[in-house]
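ok trying this again, last paste got cut off
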Amino acid sequence: MNRKTISSTPHGPTVIIWDTAGRETKITRVLLSKPLAPAIGQASELYPAVREFSCVEIDAVASGICRLLDGEPIDFSLDIADLDLCGEFQRRVLRAEHAIPRGRVSTYMLIAAHLGVPGGARAVGNALAKNPFPLIVPCHRAIRSDRTLGGYQGGLEMKRDLLAKEGITFDNSGRVQCPRFHYEE
């Protein structure tokens, strides 16, 4: 049975949907608040029967999410995320995105090429748009090839804020400034 844990963050509430199977606790979804769609409302709509609970593992992730949104360097293990809920291609994309270190960005096109799918930038973007584990898998680190932000589940303001807290800078037109992209040859 799914459970939820709600955290207050600088970007509004975040809801973690999780479950336990035997001795394992796994996150099935992280919902970010975005303009006009608070995470609590999204959770009620998507998971109407879910009750609020807590446990040590999920409380640690919730605390880490809050600290990450405050600008602390937090890296989450993928072990807590139930990647089995994703298709094979999306799992590959999420693992590649998870490997991008703090303070670096890549492009949808470079991630696709890294995965052996040249011309698959749109597929990578779609896989990240449906990332069930935002922040655990830092999909805010993927941008467009023209150095504009692209989309983000928590909204572009949150994406820009997360990148800025990681030391990424922007030019006057809002484009990311970086000397080199992750996965660039």
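PB: full thing came through this time. Helices lie at 39-46, 56-69, 88-98, 108-114, 121-129, 156-165.
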